[in-house]
Write a structure and sequence with these properties.
Elements (H helix, E strand, L loop, with lengths): L21 H37 L6 H26 L1
Length: 91
């Protein structure tokens, strides 16, 4: 048996260190997934539904824009308020 046929062991014994900023990146991704996206979708939906109702009204299709606006505006305001509070954490 020659010296070179012996199986070499890795000199690394510990797990690799985390990358710089990895914890911050993971927290940012968690915040986006858990909190920001739902409110962003709520804000878009809150504007989309009344916009479609106003379009139906404009095109003489029996509309209900006041009902959709009554529902959409509070949802939109709450969503923007929540997003503005979360934006500071993302920065």
């Amino acid at each position: 048996m020659t010296k070179h046929s012996v199986k070499a062991k890795s000199p690394l014994k510990d797990k690799p260190l985390r990358q710089a900023g990895q914890s911050l990146r993971e927290e940012r991704e968690r915040l986006m997934d858990d909190k920001v996206l739902i409110w962003l979708l709520a804000a878009v939906f809150a504007l989309y539904v009344p916009a479609m109702e106003w379009y139906r009204w404009w095109m003489s299709v029996p509309p209900q824009p006041w009902l959709m606006t009554f529902i959409g505006i509070p949802v939109f305001v709450i969503a923007v308020w929540r997003l503005s509070r979360l934006w500071a954490q993302l920065q």
